[in-house]
Amino acid sequence: MQEPYLIELQKIGDEEIGYISVAQAFSNIPFQIKRVYWIYQTPDVVERGNHAHKNAVQVLVCLKGKIKITLENKQRQVVEFMLDNPNQGLYIPNYYWRKLNFFEEGICLSLSSSDYSEEDYIRDYQEFLL
Ligand code: T46
Ligand 1 within 6 A of 49 CB? Predict the structure, then answer.
């Protein structure tokens, strides 16, 4: 069973001109990236996620603001990450129940290993624990 972990993405540039960070498959991202999406304008009071993936693995990057990501495995072990830095990614293995809370107009970039398929989602928490 894989564990979630943070990935430090190189920060290229300086204070004068700003920065570039790069995500590259099989270099700093440990899978082939098949889909990229981003989540934005989520009010603080909303909790997104509340599902797990059967196969898809992901790296999430907070491009702006702050995002609290709570991850739980089938053994009910919970780990929490606060992403607030665009040169940091969070690797999420499959079979992790996730909850996302956005603060300060948080923008979340997601790099996913798979095409979108509703079949890959477990949206029922009791089913997830089976
Ligand atoms: C995840 C977290 C971090 C699509 O049509 N195509 C897509 O590629 C995606 C990602 C979503 N959708 C549709 C499906 C729903 O009708 O957009 C709607 C919202 O999706 P969802 O409720 O799954 O959104 P989140 O923010 O709870 O979850 C998303 C990803 O779905 C999920 O894989 O890990 O972001």
Answer: yes
Three-state DSSP at 6 gives: strand
Q: What is the DSSP letter of 129?
A: H
Task: Copy the structure tokens of residue 106.
Answer: 């948080």
d(C-alpha 121, C-alpha 45), whole Å: 23
Nearest to 53 by CA among 109, 106, 104, 116: 116
DSSP state of 30: S
- Check if 51 is active-site: yes
In short, whether 86's Cβ falls inside 6 Å of ligand 1 is no
Tokens for 6? Answer: 């943070």
Q: What is the pLDDT of residues 64-96, one digit of tens each?
A: 999 999 999 999 999 999 999 999 999 999 999
pTM check: above 0.85: yes
